[in-house]
Design a protein that fits this description.
With about 260 residues, this protein is α/β, with parallel strands linked by helices. The chain contains 8 helices and 9 strands. Helix content is about 40%, strand content about 15%. The chain is globular, with a radius of gyration of 18 Å.
Length: about 260
């Protein structure tokens, strides 16, 4: 059985407020995590490789890890890209087609600090270094709150704009806020994406739907031990008692089946 983990990051920088601390992985922690992935011999995958397995074009790996980033913050460009290059880590950056060179204005009304997003030249530099560019819509809306026409526009038009910008196919999508509904999933399929990522935790394997890929979120306060446990158990919420509870549930489940 395949147990593919897709990691989700947002900002690779030190937090500027308590509110955003959860979403900010410090550069030194990020480097330690990427170094562990490389030195531990993990099977590092791109979303293209996962898509090929889903489509039956290649065999499913028994295990693997993919790295993704949402939103396209400049801090992530400056702090993550050198690390990805240093350790030769494949990754996908989900961009907002209408917010390139702008800021996180969908977050600031809720009290988050203002942060700049990547410029066009930075997006292209990231792509040239081997990072796959995916779509995160045009403007980061809550897709279930949109009607079918506007949902389709956010999903399809963002793909077209990013394809024009990069000169390459844009095959992967991530739902803003992790929110989706049937019309959003339909729009992703009609627009021509190969996969779409949610924020639901868990492993990905042969049974996974291509437009409901699961991801593990890496929090700003995750220690390296917690990072390793997230890889092992496919869960967002890891404590020192989690492994005990996890194996106890498995033993109980087997006992009940017996």
């Amino acid at each position: 059985m395949s147990r593919i983990v897709i990691l989700m990051y947002h900002v690779i920088d030190r937090a500027r407020s308590k509110q955003e601390a959860k979403y900010c992985c410090s550069p030194d922690r990020f480097e330690a995590q990427m170094r562990f992935l490389r030195e531990s011999g993990k099977n590092l995958l791109s979303l293209d490789q996962i898509a090929s397995a889903i489509e039956g074009k290649s065999a499913w790996p028994t295990a693997g890890v993919a790295v993704t980033f949402d939103d396209g913050f400049r801090d992530t460009f400056h702090h993550a890209l050198p690390v990805l290059i240093r350790y030769n880590i494949p990754a996908t950056m989900f961009m907002l087609a209408d917010r390139i060179g702008a800021n996180n204005d969908w977050m600031t009304p809720r009290g988050f600090p203002e942060r700049e997003l990547m410029s066009q030249s930075e997006v292209l530099e990231m792509q040239a270094a081997g990072v796959c560019i995916g779509s995160h819509t045009c403007s980061h809306p809550r897709l279930p709150q949109l009607d079918a026409e506007n949902s389709m526009a956010e999903i399809k038009v963002s793909r077209e704009k990013l394809r024009t910008l990069t000169g390459s196919a844009v095959n992967h999508f991530a739902y803003p806020f992790g929110l989706y509904d049937d019309k959003a999933m339909t729009a992703v399929a009609v627009a021509g994406y190969r996969t779409a990522c949610t924020t639901r935790p868990g492993f990905n394997g042969e049974e996974i739907e291509p437009f409901l890929l699961r991801r593990i979120e890496i929090y700003g306060n995750d220690t390296l031990w917690q990072f390793k446990q997230k890889l092992k158990f496919g869960s967002n919420d890891i404590s020192y008692t989690y492994p005990i509870r996890y194996y106890a549930r498995r033993v109980l489940s087997r006992f009940n089946r017996g």
